[in-house]
Amino acid sequence: MLDFLLFGALPYVALAVMLIGSIYRYTKNGFQVSSLSSQFLEGRQLFFGSQFFHWGMIMLFLGHLIGFLIPSAVLAWNGDPVRLLVLEFSAFGFALSSLIGILLLIKRRLTTKRIQMVSNNMDYVVYAVILVQIISGLAVAYYGRWGSNWFASVMTPYLRSVFAFNPNVDVIAQLSTSNEMALLMVKTHITSAFVIIGIIPFTRFVHFLVAPVDYIWRKYQLVIWNWNNKEIRNSRNYFPGKSRDFRNN
Amino acid sequence: MNVRSQISMVFHLDKCIGCHTCSVACKNIWTDRKGAEYMWWNNVETKPGTGYPTKWEDQDIYQGGWVKNGDTVSLKGAGKLKGLKNIFHNPNMPVLDDYYEPWAYRYQDLFDAPEGNDQPIGRAVSLITGEPMEIQAGPNWDDDLSGTPDYARQDVNFKHLSKAEQEAMFQLEKMTFHYLPRICNHCLNPACVGSCPSGALYKRGEDGVVLINQERCRAWRMCVTACPYKKSYYNWNTGKSEKCVLCYPRLESAQAPACMHSCVGRIRYLGVMLYDADQIQAVASCDESQIVDRHLGIYLDPHDPAVIKAAKINGIADSTIKAAQNSPVYKFVKEWKIALPLHPEFRTLPNLFYVPPLLPAMASVSEDGKYDTVSEHLLTGVEKLRVPIRYLSSLFTAGNDQKVVDVFKRLHAVRVSRRNTTVKDVSESQLNSVMNDAGIDVHMANAIFRLTSLATFEERFVIPAAHREEAIEMLENTGDYKGSTGFGFKEKPARGL
Ligand code: HEM
Ligand code: SF4
Ligand code: SF4
Description:
The structure holds two protein chains of two kinds. Chain A has helices at 2-28, 44-69, 71-77, 81-111, 113-117, 121-143, 147-163, 169-173, 180-199, 206-209, 229-232; one strand spanning 223-224. Chain A is mainly α. Chain B has a domain at 3-260. In chain B, strand 10 (232-235) and strand 11 form a beta hairpin.
């Protein structure tokens, strides 16, 4: 029953809340969509914390994405034990980097008076779920070898079944492994992932939904006109604008 | 030719008395809020000095502005590659202590203190943490402190001066300083806009005001780094960047911006400039030795029929063209050529121009122990000025001394010409030689004198109609709504019981 709630229902609740909430917040309250940078108040400690944390996090995210999109490639890569080890160790490294980063960030927030002034409860919730997520992820990698193989062969089909609206809870529920710890950690990792997704609209997590990818192809300069000068002053346009032209009226 | 209109400004530095009224007017309207206490969209600094934020001109520290890159320009410390790479932590961003920690005093303590032998005091408390603090710096901490080792001698512009030139500036008898009021330049090639990863900053097409869309800013804080003038600020409370809006709600209703309206020295002028937007890239990326000429060359003659025609094709309203023809900025910058951009080498093509300070003429003491105020001795040439030309050329012409000298010759000629009119002790030959040397005639000298000293409000601020009312025509067929309930109401304004 618990398994069904966590792996059959929670994903949908989380995704629905995330989608509706984020769209609502973005459209109705764009002013509150921000990374809420606190570098202005404290920059030195942020450097190590934020860099370690974010680069680790981005790499892990991309790694999970590849495992989800092209699991066969991951399995093929892992066919060679050396390459498997390279993958496992780098993933572990990125996770450690994130862990060190988030610990530095937590320390920074707790010990800097200026940062305290811009902290709210949700910041601590965010730290908590991220900690759970990273530590359980590290534990999965440690206890349940090899995580990358397992992700590609078990997790990806499960996730795809979720997105196909036909959640295959059994794959997770009936996971059998000799290592109890690994099982527990896998379940924690999945659950807290969906919790993170679910709380996106209520926390500063919104900032990675608006990651500025379009900057890469945008022109540098941006000029915005309140109205179209040429059209408005053209005497042939009786009523310019949505072209409710005189003749059609 | 792609003609656009730009609201531009001139600040006449000889007239600035350093009263900071402008800063306070701006603060009261725009930045008197939590998170914005430390921001001074308008600030006045003493030069030589380190300014606000400290050493803002030093792009080795802050990496602001553009650098030439072949036949284009790239951002020095931001942009697609550098900006996104540094997005998690921006190494070149000024932090609070580079500005100052804002504070208030615990005035209530003065009243509540128990009776005793000492005077009660109101301690300074930080407006950020609320804790008692030692005040380290303020928005004009170097005010009037010319010559001090911590401020004046740390001036970034001294890079270009020899040791001897620097020392000359600090000799007691020749000590000199002037004020430098600064606001956002609403640049033609704004580095802030170029650096914003989320596209929150933009230049308004109609009048060239540069704004930050608060709904789209995501606190990537790249504009703070990229603006070489440090005129984009980060609000630590809302998590959004903010900058000078040139009081656009006031401009749209034909009022001068608050800083300009309140300026006690009446040093400020505002008007329209027409420019050719097709040239921006070529001008911004030209050789540094040409940057002032090319920059001033981008502004078009509003009396030229070809320019007027091109402006009309671009839909620029007749009233705007007329305002451009009467623009005081056009006169100062193009006709009289006595106003220069601040730090043109940052390549943002700023639209705020400064008449450099000639600073007081120096009278010498004559043999009978009186001040010698005979024009011939008092108004000697620009060579005898107190302030080294090198210093000003580092501020206003990217190191081109001749350009500053040219301006000074004109300003000097205006003074000699006025002296001739009022005191009448200038010989004709002296007058002629000064005027010829400066390349102006009495007519122009009088015009400069008039707009500098006697100008009315309407002459100093020539603000075109914003034609905001026409915006509705883009959206609605006004005829359809004739006799109905009006535009602003969603339903019929029914009469109440
Ligand atoms: C490409 C995507 C991302 C970008 C551009 C980005 C950018 C930023 C920026 C600019 C900050 C503010 C740092 C400062 O105080 O100056 C920040 C903070 C933060 N980000 Fe990200 N981020 C991204 C992805 C993520 C991801 C995937 C996570 C977690 C799952 C995350 C979690 C956080 C957290 C927890 C903070 C708060 C740090 C603190 O102040 O203690 N970010 N991010
Ligand atoms: S002065 Fe700075 S903030 Fe203002 S437009 Fe230029 S680059 Fe942008
Ligand atoms: S109000 Fe005018 S005179 Fe006074 S400091 Fe500002 S610019 Fe100078």
